[in-house]
Write a structure and sequence with these properties.
The protein is built from 10 helices and 20 strands. The protein has 392 residues and is α+β, with helices and mostly antiparallel strands.
């Protein structure tokens, strides 16, 4: 097993029809620790899948270097990089059984002499016979043992003789995972492997992938658009935008302390609500005609910025329904999403006509058009300067 390091990595594609070249990855520096599960997130076109392709050897970088462990691999052919990739589309061979799909990479991983090829072929043609009539092949017996081990871990044993067209979407995904696992690579690459599954299958397969990665200890790079996958699966999350790394950290670190407005809006569902404010005296925020109290870690930096225009952010769970007082903010509910155990209110603040989201109990009866009062959590505020960078 080994970690991965991207050093000043850039990837530029030539423009079409005389257009300017397109920079997809820009001077990226990122270290993925040995055995770590790293999740890559970002909007479409930010460079997530391109980064996987560069690591797998399906594309070549324009500049910079990629290392697996201490070994530079930018010039190494894909077959010799010891990485295994799981695609969104499964990419199974339709004419092969599950057993042969699982073993495909193992059979191609080493060169064989003509005698070994004949011996392996005879073994495969006689493996259904009684043990005493089979022609032995040490190599094929090792492959068969490995396939059986992987099949048991993914509950595929009863499906080994089926072809992909006879499998459900979840079963196909498990076969694709098993094919990558069977090779026991140094690095797993997963490009949105659960996007084609329904909600229930995504949950169970997500848990299975995390458990398998924990058991195997293989360095894993996982690309997703799904907020739940990103927050629940990764040891760390890397947020990309326009080919640049915006923030790298543990899931709750990114959620609680985003490094800039982009991360604040991208991580979390619903996104952090952002409001234009002026810093008032004694570490307060002036929003429209209201003066809002701030407590906790943001007090000290606010004391040095009186009179400055900032952007203030608050997560939906930090807005609380409250009685009407001079301190609280009046709002009108424009939309209500009932999710069973909770509800998400989309509200328009009357003081400055801003839209925010509030997370409340499902037991409270609220409908679109209702007037409510909101009390912001004093310790929940996150502040950003005029460049969109977080104030620490």
């Amino acid at each position: 097993m080994a970690g991965v390091r991207f050093e000043d990595l850039s990837k530029t594609y030539p423009g079409r029809g005389g257009a300017d070249p397109v920079e997809v990855i820009r001077k990226l520096n990122l270290t993925i620790n040995n055995g770590e599960f790293l999740v890559l997130v970002g909007p479409s076109g930010c460079g997530k899948s391109t980064l996987l392709r560069l690591l797998a050897g399906l594309d070549n970088p324009t500049s910079g270097e990629i290392r697996i462990g201490s070994r530079p691999i930018s010039s190494v052919p894909p077959a010799r990089r010891d990485v295994a990739m799981v695609f969104q589309s499964y990419a199974l061979y339709p004419h092969l059984t599950v057993r042969d799909n699982l073993s495909f990479g193992l059979r191609r991983s080493q060169a064989k002499s003509i005698f070994q090829r004949i011996q392996d072929q005879v073994f495969l043609s006689t493996r259904a016979l009684p043990k005493s009539l089979r022609v032995r092949s040490v190599r094929e017996e090792q492959i068969e043992a490995r396939v059986n081990t992987v099949a048991r871990s993914l509950e595929l044993t009863e499906l080994l003789d089926r072809r992909p067209k006879e499998l459900s979407g979840g079963q196909k995904q498990r076969v694709a995972l098993g094919r990558a696992m069977a090779r026991n690579p140094e690095v797993f690459l997963m490009d949105e492997p659960l996007s084609n599954l329904d909600a229930k299958l995504r949950t169970t397969t997500r848990q299975r992938i995390v458990e398998l990665q924990r058991d195997l200890g293989t360095t894993t790079v996982y690309v997703t658009h799904d907020q739940v996958e990103a927050m629940t699966m990764g040891d760390r999350i890397a947020v990309l935008n326009k080919g640049r790394l915006q923030q790298l950290g543990k899931p709750m670190e990114l959620y609680r302390w985003p490094s800039n407005i982009f991360v604040a809006q991208f991580i979390g569902s619903p996104a952090m609500g952002l409001l234009p404010v002026i810093v008032g005296p004694n570490a307060t925020l002036i929003l429209g005609r209201k003066r809002i109290q701030v407590e906790g870690e943001m007090v000290e930096p606010l004391l040095q910025r009186e009179g400055q225009h900032l952007t203030a952010g608050l997560r939906p769970e930090h807005w609380h329904l409250a009685p009407a007082t001079n301190r609280n903010l009046q709002a009108e509910v424009s939309h209500c999403e009932r999710l069973g155990n909770e509800q998400i209110l989309t509200c328009r603040l009357l003081d400055d006509d801003q839209i925010i989201h509030a997370r409340t109990s499902a037991e409270i009866n609220i409908n679109a058009g209702d007037a409510i009062n909101l009390d912001p959590e004093p310790t929940g505020w996150r502040l950003f300067d005029t460049d969109g960078e977080a104030i620490r």
